[in-house]
Amino acid sequence: MKRTLLALMLLLIAAPAIFCQEDVLRPKWGEDRTKGTSEWDDYYSPFTFGVEAGLNFNAFSQKMTWFQQHGTIFNDLENAEGFSPHFGIMGEVPISKNLGIQLKLAYDKKYVAVSTTGYDYATDYIGNTTKHNMSLDVESKADYFTFTPLLRINITDRWFATVGPTFHFLLGDVETTWKPATKDGSSLVSIDFWNYLGFGNETAGSRTYSDAGKESVRSGIEIGAGYKIPISKKVWLVPQLRLQAMFTNITKDQSISNIYGQTIETPENRAMHSLQFALAVWFGY
């Protein structure tokens, strides 16, 4: 991450020298060019407005520290992945022909899930343990309003890059759904952890919980690339690919206890990053 940030800083420092070689005092940039790829490529817009929709690929990770024996059913919960939608609007004001300042506002849904199989322990009142083969599905979701100011850097007439901070404001709660099932017909209430979560005599069930350690505001950096496809002189279709690398975890570190109040496990560094695909329509004014 440090190398990536250093490379971005060098790019931002060098960008004006690389791209801003033309006379910025002309009312329209590029009027003297003869190699434009479209009759609309030379149009200069003093303001651009856009709407977009797209798909996130979310990657979740955490470190799990155990303080007593645990079943293998939990071993694959350190990583989860999932897809979710996002929708947004964008406004841009140019600085020069090859630089612009964008402001993006969006509704951004995050979702990850993981499925695992293994065993968990049931402990009786004198401390004897019994293994139960199980399957487990876990899903986690959260909704955000995002605020993202970006620097747009033209690479060619059509290709551009964007970079800037992104701020995510939580709408509601971070919710996690547990879906355990025993394979031997045992009831979930007889197995320590599922008894703690409130499962009853069923052999399979589903419970959703709000995370008490939620982070209401998350910050990170967004890096992206896009391509402008002219539809008319003042309208462009713009596919984009972006990476959201978040500095703030999705929830705080917090311990899980059993029914006797003993700490059994602490998840740490619960991070979520996203790769975004977006398809936008930009309008020039």
Looking at this protein, list some descriptive labels:
eight-stranded antiparallel β-barrel; mainly beta; 285 residues; elongated
Would you give an account of this structure?
With 285 residues, the chain is mainly beta. It has one domain. Helix content is 8%, strand content 58%. It has two helices and eleven strands. Strand 2 and strand 3 form a beta hairpin. The longest helix is centred in the N-terminal third of the chain and has 18 residues. It starts with a helix and ends with a strand. About 12% of the residues have low confidence.
Secondary-structure topology with pairs:
Layout: H1 2-19, E1 48-66, E2 79-94, E3 99-123, E4 129-154, E5 159-182, H2 192-196, E6 207-210, E7 217-227, E8 229-232, E9 235-246, E10 256-257, E11 263-284
Antiparallel strand pairs: 1-2, 1-11, 2-3, 3-4, 4-5, 5-6, 5-7, 7-9, 8-9, 9-11, 10-11
Total tally of structural domains: 1
Strand order of the largest sheet: 1-2-3-4-5-7-9-11
In helices, the fraction of residues equals under 10%
Shape: elongated
Average pLDDT taken over every residue: 84
Short note summarizing the structure:
With 285 residues, the chain is mainly beta. The protein has helices spanning 2-19, 192-196; strands at residues 48-66, 79-94, 99-123, 129-154, 159-182, 207-210, 217-227, 229-232, 235-246, 256-257, 263-284. A hairpin with a 5-residue loop joins strand 3 (99-123) and strand 4 (129-154).
